[in-house]
Automatic annotation (TrEMBL):
It holds the Pfam family Amidase. The keyword Hydrolase applies. This is Amidase. Residues 27-430 form the Amidase domain. It comes from Ramlibacter monticola. One of its GO terms (molecular function) is amidase activity.
Amino acid sequence: MPLPDLHSTRERLRQGRTDVAAELGAAAAVARSAACTHVFLKTRFEAAAAEAAAVPPGAPLAGLPVSIKDLFDFAGDVTTAGSVALVDAEPARVDAPAVQRLRAAGGTVVGRTNMTEFAFSGVGVNPHYGTPPNPCDPKTPRIPGGSSSGGAVSVATGAAFIGLGSDTGGSIRIPAALCGIVGFKNTARLTPLEGAYPLSGTLDTVCAMTRSVRDAVLAHEILAARTVARSDAPLSGYRFAVATTQLLDDMDATVARAFQRTLRRLGDAGARIDEIPLPQVHELGSIQSAGGFAAAESYAWHRQLLLQEGSRYDPRVRVRIERGAGMKAYEYIELQRARGAWVREVGQALAGYDAVLSPTVPIVAPPIADVAPGAGRDEAFFGLNALLLRNPSVVNMLDGCALSLPCHAPDELPVGLMAWHGALHDDAILNLSVQIENLLSSKA
């Protein structure tokens, strides 16, 4: 049975069928249970309860619990970015703007969530604080996806209604897909990056995970301080592209079955779906052959900290950051130029389409044991990381927006459908995703 989303819980509050204290109590019980092992680095339910009692009537988030990734400043706390190298840093003096906006909207912060160290991996493994197990499989501990690993599990288990996170190459959408929830990566410029440790200033996006698309719309409106232009256009009014170059490669049987079944249902509902080659996706490898933005820009930020605390870094993260040391200035400038040209070419190829549909990631969540820190597993880890990042990172390079929503059957492990487009198509992606979710939640 799916957990109630924020909208339905607000309605239950209005009807007097629950109250905020009960909701916070239930969230606290979940957060302290085995389902949330390694999910929170710090909780504050007593303070949250006091804050919730002071939330004014009619506040959009109604005093309900939200979690924040350990990437974001929260006044009085040390922001460690999932690392032990920063545990002695000064506490934050003020909340990050994204945190401020959630609290101003009536969200009560119940804790800081675990993450991949410095947000530099899509797998979700953390050797310092443990790896949160994906709640999708009670028998086999599976990866949650990253880097916003703890945030995804907090939403999927019921410990929070919104999980604030970041997305540089898929760090919101990957864990959302693997944990069976919704993750929306907005156009990066729409949400403030201040008060969050950077990975790549060029690609970083502040965004959130939720239990439904309608909750994603609300969370985006709060974080971006803007109103989404709503549309009730039916699916028959949309034209979708399915890009066949690389984005459909290496799908496992569960993902392939769920993706094709979803396309059939959309087609039956009247949506127009065209397969297109989009060869530009294949060009990304050569464009980034000298190194990508994340390595170069993260190394610029971490260079001094590595000299002082490098031995305390996750070795898998450190090696990826240090690749940026070899990138020359002219190569970085050429990468910027090539990206601009590539964005224009992709934009031309997608003209006339409302969205592209792809699997968010091509596989279901594998067991943590396959890639846990340890001798002989690094090759498997880096191979899995590249596979998970492959599809969602296309959108970050495009400076675009994308939403991942569940498309699996009840007896399948979670599979994410990603609807995406270029910059500032956010409202269209959100509106059509509402329609897709409604279709998939109805009886076939």
